């Protein structure tokens, strides 16, 4: 506390020509008080000034170390860490203005009421991001089993043709499927296989058996997966929609284009 | 003959459901989300903020769930429902946080409290985003869709069949 005021003192003395030669612990009194009689009779001010004038920084140090000594092991260290060369506030921090307070209130109310998050908030809170520790194949094996069950249900009883499933697959979900990249413009993607855990507009996020999380763009690559011994191809180029947008998308037959 | 005819009828009824695949998909997504939010992994984190020797030596082990993926799945589920205007069964909808789409499992990802205000109500707070859902907790409370006067021909109702599938 005291330290900051002494600093203030020095800065003020630079701006105004110092009225008194000695530097004080407290900033100089305003002029209208100095002129008044009260100041002249006040010897407390003079007493403190004489006491501190020699070396006010030393005073602060001894004062703080004495005050802390009873409770701390190393008061000197505390002084050097917390007070030395630091500016401290003498007052409590100013209250936020009414506008900002009301804004905060509204914000809190929106949270409680369950107003949907903005994209910015989602990004800041990392709401859809998978932590690194969770990128393990074993955690998602069950998801794959669930997906297989879902596919069985979608396909219908065993023996039904593949042609019945194919149009349904366009609107199906691929979270949990084991996808393999068979063709790609980027050669390093070829051969990667893993459980799909997240499908975005332009990428598949796969977790491989070696517990590595890979994000593979749909564009310019072909994915395959197997069901009941049959192999299905996904042409990534024509599949580049959001997982939810695909539900009501009308797909048109397009000639397949060879990659390369 | 009669058996066959019955089978056909049942099949026809089953085929009658519109957007069947989408309901299946939403169902799958809901189940997947439930699976993800209930699987836990160990997260070890060290505090880098405090410089004390003690805290750096101590490693915080915490069990976390893969809720982020669950949130993603439920978000896609809700978006599908929004786009195709498919109704989600209230009991399912009540388990999803309105704000962050996470699955609300009492005591695990949410906090449920019964409060007596003007009337008794159930408050469910999402532990992820602190959003609160409030439901009346009267004894004789019925949802709109549960009220007998709102159900047309109770057994043949399409929506009830769908709702069963959803849960």
UniProtKB/TrEMBL annotation, chain A:
GO biological process: rRNA processing; tRNA 5'-leader removal
Record Pfam families: RNase_P-MRP_p29
Keywords, ordered alphabetically: Nucleus, Phosphoprotein, tRNA processing
Composition skew (Basic and acidic residues), residue ranges: 1-12
GO MF terms held by the record: ribonuclease P RNA binding
A GO cellular-component term linked to this record: ribonuclease MRP complex
Renumbered residue ranges of the record's region Disordered: 1-27
Domain of life: Eukaryota
Matching InterPro entries: RNase_P/MRP_Rpp29-subunit (IPR016848), RNase_P/MRP_Rpp29_sf (IPR036980), Rof/RNase_P-like (IPR023534), Rpp29/RNP1 (IPR002730)
Subcellular location: Nucleus, Nucleolus
Primary localization: nucleus
Quaternary state and interactors: Component of nuclear RNase P and RNase MRP ribonucleoproteins. RNase P consists of a catalytic RNA moiety and 10 different protein chains; POP1, POP4, POP5, POP7, RPP14, RPP21, RPP25, RPP30, RPP38 and RPP40. Within the RNase P complex, POP1, POP7 and RPP25 form the 'finger' subcomplex, POP5, RPP14, RPP40 and homodimeric RPP30 form the 'palm' subcomplex, and RPP21, POP4 and RPP38 form the 'wrist' subcomplex. All subunits of the RNase P complex interact with the catalytic RNA. Several subunits of RNase P are also part of the RNase MRP complex.
Function: Component of ribonuclease P, a ribonucleoprotein complex that generates mature tRNA molecules by cleaving their 5'-ends.
Protein family (similarity comment): Belongs to the eukaryotic/archaeal RNase P protein component 1 family.
Protein name: Ribonuclease P protein subunit
Organism: Ambispora gerdemannii
High-level lineage: Eukaryota, Fungi, Fungi incertae sedis, Mucoromycota, Glomeromycotina
TrEMBL record, chain B:
GO molecular function annotations of the record: metal ion binding
InterPro entries the UniProt entry points to: Rpr2/Snm1/Rpp21
Keywords tagged on the record: Metal-binding, tRNA processing, Zinc
Pfam families named in the record: Rpr2
Superkingdom: Eukaryota
Gene3D superfamilies recorded: 6.20.50.20
GO-annotated cellular components: nucleolar ribonuclease P complex
GO biological process, one term: tRNA processing
Coiled coil: none
PANTHER family, per the entry: RIBONUCLEASE P PROTEIN SUBUNIT P21 (PTHR14742:SF0), RIBONUCLEASE P SUBUNIT P21 (PTHR14742)
Similarity comment: family membership: Belongs to the eukaryotic/archaeal RNase P protein component 4 family.
Protein name (Swiss-Prot/TrEMBL): 10467_t:CDS:1
Organism name: Ambispora gerdemannii
